[in-house]
Automatic annotation (TrEMBL), chain B:
<keyword id="KW-0489">Methyltransferase</keyword>
<feature type="binding site">
    <location>
        <begin position="105"/>
        <end position="111"/>
    </location>
    <ligand>
        <name>S-adenosyl-L-methionine</name>
    </ligand>
</feature>
<feature type="binding site">
    <location>
        <position position="176"/>
    </location>
    <ligand>
        <name>S-adenosyl-L-methionine</name>
    </ligand>
</feature>
<keyword id="KW-0949">S-adenosyl-L-methionine</keyword>
<dbReference type="InterPro" id="IPR001678">
    <property type="entry name" value="MeTrfase_RsmB-F_NOP2_dom"/>
</dbReference>
<dbReference type="GO" id="GO:0003723">
    <property type="term" value="F:RNA binding"/>
</dbReference>
<dbReference type="InterPro" id="IPR011023">
    <property type="entry name" value="Nop2p"/>
</dbReference>
<feature type="binding site">
    <location>
        <position position="156"/>
    </location>
    <ligand>
        <name>S-adenosyl-L-methionine</name>
    </ligand>
</feature>
<dbReference type="InterPro" id="IPR029063">
    <property type="entry name" value="SAM-dependent_MTases_sf"/>
</dbReference>
<keyword id="KW-0808">Transferase</keyword>
<comment type="similarity">
    <text>Belongs to the class I-like SAM-binding methyltransferase superfamily. RsmB/NOP family.</text>
</comment>
<dbReference type="GO" id="GO:0016428">
    <property type="term" value="F:tRNA (cytidine-5-)-methyltransferase activity"/>
</dbReference>
<dbReference type="InterPro" id="IPR023267">
    <property type="entry name" value="RCMT"/>
</dbReference>
<feature type="binding site">
    <location>
        <position position="129"/>
    </location>
    <ligand>
        <name>S-adenosyl-L-methionine</name>
    </ligand>
</feature>
<keyword id="KW-0694">RNA-binding</keyword>
<feature type="domain" description="SAM-dependent MTase RsmB/NOP-type">
    <location>
        <begin position="17"/>
        <end position="300"/>
    </location>
</feature>
<dbReference type="InterPro" id="IPR049560">
    <property type="entry name" value="MeTrfase_RsmB-F_NOP2_cat"/>
</dbReference>
Length: 177, 301
């Protein structure tokens, strides 16, 4: 399967074994289905209200199918190594999904789609349990947060559907607190 | 044979040393400044009724009661359980934000994440390890602690290539080599079960190769920190002596605020360069820690 770019040239397919920098905009896309930097920044802004300036100094990379990584600074693309910066976002699926670690790292700046949990709810979330919660905002991926040391701190990513918040904390990050 | 007995002649109080080696280690965490301030971390511990005591030599190193992993600050990546002496080399390296630093033997990543934090998560920390299986632990820790400035490579550190990064040299390198781990008996009572002089000689050969390559990969005027968690002079002073004679570098003084003894200039008939006194030996009975060795080098004359 191939896809044509705006100028009619055929687009390359993603090489999942190396890091390729995301194109700046959709017009610069050379690899089929690859998200652009602009789309990634817009997505965090639209979904969580995290302003694009937050990521001014960062570059974004794809390695693996739809796995987007964030690196402070920049390097010549492509890069053949094991890991580059932090896993940040899953694309190439209908609903893009942020990683737990990106939500913890950047979620303090979020102004929408943040669900604040109380003490017991936060402990259940950290254990990886699903729970019914009161939430009349958007469905889909939310940043779950709780109050600690006088501030609201992100716990990770939850999926809210039909009155239930699923904890998406990966097994290795789950804790019984 | 008792492996630690051979250090009796170089220790001030062998009985105190032996007794310390038999006690378990206190539980210590380092505050991860990428995600939190010391005040936030200690306030969160207070809210959970977890008792904490700052270490005198560094306020970001805290002794805490209980398991360090089962606290909210740990879940959020505000703190990282790290043995006290293991935090020495990154503090000695003291990298600046924006610098490019090589961590030759990085897994499982305590020192990589500490370097990134000291650099305010800017610049580039190349975290290398030759063991592919250990890279998952390294990646788990960099991500949990919110590091975005690290790049992970899987190379033999003895012939490390800078090619993937288009760099000609690093500003600094941390060389925390695989070793015979004699200093970790308090954490792991079976650490000395496979001890043998042939093992020490073998691992020393690898250490020499790794340190040489790190010096070559660091720019003129840059810093290289060499460390081990062992007492064996064959892996410490003898490795430094070998590399000093072959690469363009010199030992420099540093101050860390913990009690230490100077590097040895003689061991079992071998004499080492006088400057190796600037390296430091950390003994379990002096600061109630594990055992450690750390030297700071400057590249170029």
């Amino acid at each position: 399967m191939s896809e044509n770019g705006d100028d009619g040239t055929e687009l390359a397919t993603n090489d999942g074994q190396r890091f390729d920098r995301l194109p700046a905009t959709e017009e610069d896309r050379e690899v089929s289905g690859r998200a652009s930097r602009e789309e990634v920044l817009d997505w965090w802004d639209d979904r969580f209200g995290i302003p694009p300036e937050t990521f001014e100094e960062a570059s974004f990379w794809e390695k693996g199918k739809g796995k987007i990584w964030i690196l402070d600074g920049d390097l010549e693309s492509p890069v053949h190594i094991e890991a580059l910066g932090m896993t940040f976002l899953r694309t190439r699926q209908r609903h893009w999904k942020p990683t737990t670690n990106a939500a913890q790292r950047f979620g303090r700046r979020a102004t929408k789609n943040v669900v604040e949990l109380d003490g017991e709810q936060a402990r259940r979330f950290a254990r990886g349990e699903d729970q019914e919660i009161e939430w009349d905002g958007d469905w889909g991926y939310l940043i779950a947060a709780h109050e600690i040391a006088g501030e609201i701190e992100p716990l990770g990513v939850g999926l809210f559907l039909h009155g239930e918040l699923q904890s998406l904390v990966p097994g290795g990050r789950q804790r019984d607190l | 044979m008792d492996p630690l007995e051979r250090y009796e002649p170089i220790l001030d109080d062998f009985e105190a040393f032996r007794a310390a080696c038999e006690r378990p280690l206190p539980s210590v965490v380092r505050v991860n400044r990428i995600k939190a301030t010391r005040e936030q971390a200690t306030r969160a511990f207070d809210e959970e009724n977890v008792e904490w005591t700052p270490r005198e030599w560094n306020e970001n190193v805290l002794e805490i009661e209980g398991k360090p992993g089962n606290t909210w600050p740990s879940f959020h990546g505000w703190t990282h359980g790290q043995e006290e002496v293991s935090s020495i080399p990154a503090f000695v390296l003291d990298p600046e934000p924006g610098e490019r630093v090589l961590d030759s033997c990085a897994a499982p990543g305590s020192k990589t994440t500490q370097l990134a934090a000291l650099m305010d998560d800017t610049g580039l920390v190349v975290a290398n390890d030759s063991n592919l299986g250990r890279l998952s632990a390294l990646r788990f820790n960099t991500e949990r602690l919110g590091v975005t400035c690290a790049a992970v490579t899987n190379q033999d550190a003895r012939n490390f290539s800078l090619k993937p990064f288009g760099l000609s040299a690093f500003d600094a390198a941390l060389v925390d080599v695989p070793c015979s781990c004699e200093g970790t008996v308090r954490k792991n009572p079976t650490a000395l079960d496979d001890w043998g002089l042939d093992h020490i000689e073998g691992v020393a050969g690898v250490q020499k190769g790794i340190l040489r390559r790190a010096v070559q990969a660091t720019r003129e005027g840059g810093t290289v920190v060499y460390s081990t968690c062992t007492f064996a002079p064959e892996e410490n002073e003898a490795v430094l002596d070998y590399v000093l004679a072959r690469e363009d570098c010199r030992l420099v003084e540093y101050d860390i605020g913990l009690r230490s003894e100077p590097g040895l200039t003689e061991w079992h008939g071998d004499e080492f360069d006088e400057s190796i006194r600037k390296a430091k030996r950390f003994y379990p009975h002096h600061n109630d820690t594990g055992g450690f060795f750390c030297a700071k080098l400057e590249v170029g004359q």
